Amino acid sequence: MKRNRIIIIGVLVFSILIFSFYFHDRFSQSKYLQFYQVDTKKDSVLKIGIIGDSWAAGKKLDSILHNQLLKRGLNNKIISSGKPGAKSKAVYQNLFKNKEDKFSSKVVIENKPDYCILILGVNDAASQIGRHYYSYHMVQIIKTLLHYKIKPILVTCPEFDIEETIDNMNILSRNRNIISAYFNNNGEIDNIKTYRKTLMEELASEELVNDIVLIDFDRVCPDYKNCSQMYRNSSHLSEKGNVKLIEVIVGELVNEIPQLGQHTH
Questions:
Q1: How many CB atoms are closer than 10 A to CB 234?
Q2: pTM value surpassing 0.85
C-alpha cells in the first residue's frame, strides 16, 4: 500500500508540474529580447516587409502587393515571413531567431525595409489568450521595427468567424478556449473588438500611434456574416479578400508616397 501511495503521489506531482509548465508557457509574456546588429543599408528601391501568422505565410500577399505598387509607379521589393498558427508571442520571438530556423523572420529585419506590414491576431483571439497578452507582444513587435527604422503598417486584429473557428476545433482545444474566455475576457467569445481597443490604448500609452500606419480591418470587412465571400473558411481570407486587404493597405501607402519620392519612377 505504501509503495502504491508513493507512486500515486509521484504521478500527481509530475502531472502538476507538466500542467504548470504548459500553462506558464501558454499564457506568459515573452521576455524582452536583445536587439542585434544589422549592417544592411537602405537603397533606392521601396522595400516592404510582411510578418504574421498564416495570413502572411506562403507569400500569398507578396505578388498582389508587388503588382499593385508597380501599377502605381512604384518599383518595389517584398520580403515576407509568416508562421501558420502563430500567436503574437511567436511572431515577436521569430524576429530574433536564427535564420536557420524555419520560421525565423530575421531576414525581414536584415533587409531593412521601409515599411513592414503586421497581419496577425486571429490565433490570439481564437485561443482566448488574453487582450493584454496580445497587446504586449504587438507593442514589442512595433518597438523592434522602429528600432531598426522600419515603419510598421499595423492591420488591426482581423475580423473572422471566431465562434465557428472555435467550434471546429477538437473537443479539448474547444473547451480549453471557452474556459480561457471566462478568465481572460469575461466569458465573451467574440473578443476581436476588445483586442483592438486594448491595443490602441497601449499604443497611445506608449506614444506610438503617430509612429505607425494604421489599417482598420473594418475597411476590408466589418462583419464576417455580411462579407463571407471574402473568406475561404471561417478564419482565412480568400484570394478576393487578400486583394481587398492589399488595396486598402496600398491606399494608405499612397498617402505616404510624397515622403518616398526617391522610390518613384
A1: 18
A2: yes
